[in-house]
Give the backbone structure.
Amino acid sequence: MADDGIGSLRDPLSDELKKEIVACFWRQRTQDVHLPDFISFFHYYDRTCKALYLGVLEKEADVTAASTHHHVMSIVSCLWDYLDEETEKDLPCRRPTVRESLESHTFGEGVSHDHINRSIDLALRLWLTINIRDPKFAPASNSRQWDDESSLRSFIASRFPTPQTSEVPSTLQRNVRLESNLTAVNLRRLSGIRTEWTQRLDEHLDFDHANRTVKVYMLKACLHHHRIRNVIEQAVIDETLLSLELLFPDWDAPTRQYLKEFEHFRNQPSVEYPHGLYLADFHHWRDRLSYLYLQFHAPAPSFRQVWNDRRNPVQWYTFWFAVAIFVMTIVFGIITSITAIMQTRYAYESMILARRAAASP
């Protein structure tokens, strides 16, 4: 990566440059950009850029042609041009065409195709917040590069899950209603499942059973902007926003209290939906939501969660009544045992005293 020193990826971003980036990524006018909505996004952007310079044997920055923020914006602008052409002329946006254009107009001839490919991956990773990257530099993550055969839209679609069982919801899934109490706060309080915020859209609702954490995509502002200029499939955006409404409802006081620490997330507009949500309303996130739903309704992992879980009052009172009877049985058993031991001791001492009295003249 040749660093020209102008808007280098190493440099802090000025507010003006941030506005340029947002305007480029979502095709807005710079004067219309509301930067406070993108505070979390630029934390992700900055961290991703800095990660290019990490590495012991080989740094990703050394094998990537893009070295400035303007390079990134040039790549995204080029992608937008080909995506528009795809819409108008039905010509799929493919990597070789994009690479040839970037070689001619951005990087110049003589730059390695691999270096340009990694630059395209970087721009896509920053723009779409999806883990598009050479697996060589992220062996432990589920990363993948855009290839020369797939169109951009089909490649992006492949990065999101689809139901493993059937494309069409089963009768059971159509009847499974996602209750309004299936919130992130209740997942923690009743099931011991913690929320782990993620800034990668493809990790949304990924459940870690060992640590009992669920990843939740936090860049809500990006979703709303992608919804207007949809490069990512519309269904993915809509389902993600609906799942966020399910987990963080505006009407829930504990949720509002929890989100006080995440003002930039809470201040984003809500999405209205006309009816209760069912599992069948989701396609891409259906399997992950189904697993989360099962975990939410599974037996509580600790007595603290059992105490908090009063969704079924009869079951709750029955359980704790049984626990009270059990504890009382043990207590009375211990008292009975102690009483019996004391009676035996007093009887033994009485017998000794009687023998001594009988033996005395």
Notes: The mean pLDDT is 84. The first strand starts at residue 194 and ends at 198.
